[in-house]
Amino acid sequence: MLTRAAFYFLRHGETDWNKLRLMQGQTDTPLNPVGIFQAEAAAQILAKKNIVTICTSPLCRARNTAEIIAAHTSVTSIVNVDGLKESNFGSYEGHPSGPWRESWVAGGEIPGGELFEDFIERSLAALNECLKHPGPVLIVAHGGTFLAVRRWALEEAAVRTGNCELLALSPPRKGSKAPWKLKRVFTPEDVAKAAL
């Protein structure tokens, strides 16, 4: 079960592999210039949100996104949470997604990779570790990590997270079986629209 505490979730900024639609997994790809710009734009929004704790995946694309945000807020330290790492996609890292992914989600193995259910359980434990810290908490992680949020808070709703999209999540009232409330606070497209 996901700890019932409101938090913000931010997927890392764009990388070249995102642009090429390649599976990154735990390959430590850096932000590209667009990703850096996205993180700086998200930071301007987050500067107004009184974030107390930033928890991040240690993979550099997430860590660098978190560092850019911290530089624009009053947060003085960033907490690395190893369990927030993207799934290990084994031999499929560096390649496009394909039919193997549906099989993996259904319980199939991938060569040299992590089982889907193991990944979801690891991600849930990491999210709960983050939510032990003083809030509001910002979690900077990966699209795959958000699958655990979808399962444990959003009743598997088909919500996707783009690069540097900022989502606010709030639990339902105590005793309610309703899904959590989800609000898109910021997308990088907002900046492009404002520039028109």
Topology:
Elements: E1 7-11, H1 16-19, H2 33-46, E2 53-56, H3 60-71, E3 78-80, H4 99-105, H5 116-130, E4 137-141, H6 145-153, E5 166-170, E6 181-186, H7 188-195
Parallel strand pairs: 1-4, 2-3, 2-4
Antiparallel strand pairs: 1-5, 5-6
Describe this structure as you would to a colleague.
The chain is an alpha/beta fold and 196 residues long. It has a single domain (7-195), classed as Phosphoglycerate mutase-like (Rossmann fold, 3-Layer(aba) Sandwich), CATH 3.40.50.1240. 35% of the residues lie in helices and 14% in strands. The chain contains 7 helices and 6 strands. It has helices at 16-19, 33-46, 60-71, 99-105, 116-130, 145-153, 188-195, and strands at 7-11, 53-56, 78-80, 137-141, 166-170, 181-186. The protein has a 6-stranded mixed beta sheet with strand order 3-2-4-1-5-6. Helix 3 (60-71) links the parallel strand 2 and strand 3. Helix 2 (33-46) packs across helix 3 (60-71) and helix 5 (116-130) crosses helix 6. The longest helix is centred in the middle third of the chain and has 15 residues, at 116-130. The radius of gyration is 16 Å and the shape is globular. The protein starts with 6 loop residues before the first strand and ends with a helix. The model has no long low-confidence stretch (mean pLDDT 92).
